[in-house]
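Note to self: user wants both folds in one dump. Writing first protein now.
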Amino acid sequence: MNILVTNDDGIEASGIRNLVKALSQTAEIYVCAPHTQRSASGHGITVGKPIEVEETDFEHAVKAYATTGTPADCVKIGTKILNDQGIKIDMVFSGINLGGNLGTDTLYSGTVSAAIEGSLCGIPSVAVSVNSHKASHFELACDLALGACRNGFSKMSARTVLNINTPDLPKEEIKGVKYTRLGMREYKEWFRPKTGENGKTQYWYEGNPVVYEGLPDDIDVISMQDGYASITPLHYDLTDYELVDEIKKWRLAE
């Protein structure tokens, strides 16, 4: 099996190093990742300017490329470069992200978007995150990634993206794994004003996650709050099927 690994924290990040090492136990690993931090880049792709690609050394990987592109770019370019060399990618893994990708945050996430790009390319894909921007406990995240590779691949369609999130705790302190759906991921947020060196006002986005009470435990955000890892199946079809027939009655075209 050939696996392409990418991320949005950059090719030097600790998360991607741990993920590549783990997956190399069961597959040939190829890396194509941003040369620098590209968090919260969503599903953006580079249009109207070139993307630089540089081959680099990466422990436990057969080949690795650092690019100036977005996470989604890395999947598109990585699969193209490798395909031209006669290497067919069987799965795409994105991560391990430093910080959770839960609920509605998945819409902003470069990590999840890279996995969805794999799906758009017709490849079963997995996003993996640890719920701390200073994450240091990758054991369970790596184990679940290996499980997705070994046990999930034969069952996943190209439309499937698995979104894995784990608490930043030692494996033995995590309560278990829940199979979940997306929930809301809200923040007590604000923009902090600051005067820049040029004298212009800058605004820095900050916020703390809302802690929820009384919500079902099959929601990914609640699972994480309660000390569990979560695995959520995703797909890129955003259609609200319940409304397709209903909006015909709204006479919007008249």
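First done. Writing the second protein, which came from a different request thread.
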Amino acid sequence: MKKAVFSIIALCLIGIQGSFAQKKYEANWESIDSRPIAPWFEDAKFGIFIHWGPYSVPAWSPKGTYSEWYQYWLQSKSLFGNGKFTGTEVYDYHVETYGPHFSYYNFGEQFTARNFDADKWAKLFADAGAKYMMITSKHHDGFTLWPSKEANKTWGFPWNAKDVGAKRDLLKELEVAVKKTDVKFGTYYSLYEWFNPLWKKDKEKFALEHTHPQFKDLVENYKPDLIWSDGDWSAKPETWHSPELLKWLFNESAVAESVVVNDRWGDGARFNHGGYYTTEYQSELDGSKPWEECRGIGFSFGYNANEDSWDYASDRTLIYLLLNVVSNGGNLLLDIGPDANGNIPPIMQDRLLAIGDWLKVNGEAIYGSRKWERACQWSKKGKKDWKPEGAHYLPADFILKQTIDPEPGYGVREIFFTKKGEDVFAIVPKWPKETLVIRDMKATSTTEITLVGTDLKVEFVQKGKNLILKVPNLTPDELPSKYAYSFKISNVVK
């Protein structure tokens, strides 16, 4: 009898899985938005963004701006970001450095990637504890890291890494290397291109005759686990025919049943349609929908030789940023900018490896976790959520002001929380002195508390609504990790 019951259950499960796999999506947002996001994405928590292309050759823009926008700054003589600008800074730099007649398109030949070693990159991503990565297969300048016939056709000259500069299919090399690891392979893809002649002449024709076939070529030949669309502000989804493109992706493509996508599919789609929600140089969302915050280790996404060491976020800052995002139910997509030769700057490698070291100890509190009933515990005194005034993009060090270095009159996030099953993790940005008071948490008769990364059991008492941990007296050398420490608390109630 038991065998029969188990057989029926198994058949039902197979039927459910089969119906999910066979579901056909329609070219409308109601249908597209009904597609679930693969659970592995919410479990991943940490990914690595890579901006790499011809803009990596000049590798320059004023501090507080994106160097990967070099072509746009150059040709439009405009600039925006954090700071005050005349608008001509990049143009003036370009003329002084390369001369007035040197075209941005000449950087394609100089984008040699001669030191690029895909296996070394992939190993770094894995050692950093990242569960996925995302590379700019094509940014807004239209240059592709793979041999795209559409790129050459609409531009009227070779404009891809296989035909100029590197003379290699850089995307394929990276795909092969990453797929040897447990890291998921993702491709960033810009829907539009600033100065493409066809885009400037006929936007809808550009979408249907350039973007759609190029996108399909990318998907079919490189089979990404994730697709990070961008350039969404430039036209409505109807102009891009995004629902039709996503219908093809989810029904007919080689990755139909597995691919994860974001929300940038046309002006007005972000935070409303598509897949997971994306923020950029922001703080946090409420976690009601899978989401991801992206930002650079420095300020720029692309490599910017104009940035100094102090312009890069410290490993402490990056770990706190990760905690803030994960405690709110999101993923952190942290960007690096390799140089034109394919070298990842040592300072970026150092930061990634520091995160990896922290995750080796505290990963249990991060990977696979979800948002608890509250993301953090604020100090009792002081205003919450300090932010700098007048910044277009939120600088990384805001999180230091909200944790260990508050501005006068402001409180701090004393504890970050995550949950996994019946366990709650209380992660503190600095080691407590003698006791740690967690407000509005009640232990049960089966509650146990351990210090993650050790075999130490932590004593505790319940005082009213507060759970008070008697923190062990450890020397700096005895602490399991640097900068933040995780307490695993089992079987508690509100």
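Dump finished. Worth passing along: Residues 103 and 253 are 37 Å apart (CA to CA).
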